Amino acid sequence: MQSTRHSLPQLLGEARRWFEEGLLAALEAAGAVPVSPTQAQLFAVLDDQGTTVSELARRMGVTRQTAHQAVHGLVATGLLEQVPDSASARQRLIRRTQEGERAHRQAAVILERLEEQLAERIGQKAVDALRAALEVPWGRPPSLSPK
C-alpha cells in the first residue's frame, strides 16, 4: 500500500502556492498589472537597492535565462527598471520603479490579509509556531548518502 503522507518539501510547496494563488487573485481583482508566479517570486527576493539578474536567479532557484525573462516582462510593464551597478561596470541592477514600489506595498498588505485568513482557518497558535519554526536558521543542507 502506498503512503498518502506528503513529504515536508511537498507541504511547503503547497503552502507557498496557497499564498501565491491568493496574492495573484487579489492583485487581479484590484486591477493590478497581471504578473506570473515567477514574476511575483522575483519581486519577493528583490533587494530595495537593486539586485543583479544572477543573484535573483540564485535566490529563486531558477536559471539566469528564466530570471532574465521575468525581469524583462516586469520592465516592459513598468514595474522594474535596470540601472548601472556602481560596484561593477559590467553589471546592471534590477530595481523597482515608483509603480513597482506601489505594487510591492499592495502585495505586502494582501499577504498580511492572507496570513490573517490562515490564522482564522488553522489558529493563530499554529501560524505563530509555523513562523517560529521557519525563522530558525537551518544551516547548510547536510550531505547524506542513501541508505
UniProtKB/TrEMBL annotation:
Naturally occurring in which organism (per UniProt): Streptomyces gobitricini
Residues in HTH marR-type domain copies: 28-127
Protein name: HTH marR-type domain-containing protein
UniProt cross-references to Pfam families, sorted A to Z: MarR_2
SUPFAM superfamilies in the cross-refs: Winged helix' DNA-binding domain
Superkingdom classification of source: Bacteria
